[in-house]
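> example.struct
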């Protein structure tokens, strides 16, 4: 089984909290516990120690970028510093910044990352059985994959798992941006919409094939009025 794990952060490359710990450890654990071919894909952040990178394997990863109706590109680095294959998307315009989150264009940054990650998987020419999306930054990938199943043979048999690490962070942004990011279809917009705003977390929950959380206890807690962030 081939599993691609998408995350905005992962140890030892970049971390702000528990998501980084889990995403960094999971690929290695899956490979050691079974015959799963698990790989990690994340952005190359400014805080990443470049000594952890082994090779720059792609100089020009091109893909369609709806914003502006153009094609965009990124470089890709390879590392095994986490104990498993990791691919880091190098896009200085979006990720050469002091912090991993907290910018007005965070929705655009991580929508870009998700499109680049899916383009990378096609470039590697090994269709994943599962794409594991983690928290709101990867919600864009879940929506995109659902749409691609019917038009892209490469992803026809790919299924998605969406993991909630912190429900409080929901990736909320102006729904006017949806069309600019390539999510203009009615069903795609509906997946994002929540209380008059667009939420990448809600979109990931609505379009993935399976949901998970960091623990059984947290799964119960986020279903309560106090911690459900309705």
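> example.seq
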């Amino acid at each position: 089984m081939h599993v691609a794990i998408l995350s905005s952060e992962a140890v030892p490359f970049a971390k702000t909290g528990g998501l980084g710990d889990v995403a960094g450890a999971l690929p290695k654990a899956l490979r050691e516990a079974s015959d799963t071919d698990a790989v990690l894909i994340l952005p190359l952040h400014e805080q990443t120690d470049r000594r952890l990178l082994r090779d720059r394997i792609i100089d020009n990863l091109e893909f369609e970028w709806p914003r502006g109706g153009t094609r965009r590109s990124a470089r890709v680095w390879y590392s095994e510093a986490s104990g498993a294959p990791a691919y880091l998307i190098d896009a200085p315009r979006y990720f050469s910044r002091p912090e991993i989150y907290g910018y007005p264009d965070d929705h655009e940054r991580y929508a870009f990352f998700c499109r680049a990650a899916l383009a990378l998987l096609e470039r590697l020419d090994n269709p994943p059985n599962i794409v594991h999306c983690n928290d709101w930054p990867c919600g864009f990938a879940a929506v995109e994959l659902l749409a691609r199943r019917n038009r892209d043979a490469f992803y026809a048999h790919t299924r998605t798992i969406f993991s909630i690490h912190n429900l409080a962070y929901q990736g909320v942004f102006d729904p006017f941006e949806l069309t600019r990011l390539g999510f203009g279809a009615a069903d795609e917009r509906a997946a994002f919409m929540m209380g008059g705003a667009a939420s990448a977390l809600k979109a990931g929950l609505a379009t993935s094939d399976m949901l998970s959380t960091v623990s059984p206890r947290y799964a119960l807690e986020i279903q309560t009025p106090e911690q459900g962030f309705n």
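> remarks
The radius of gyration is 16 Å.
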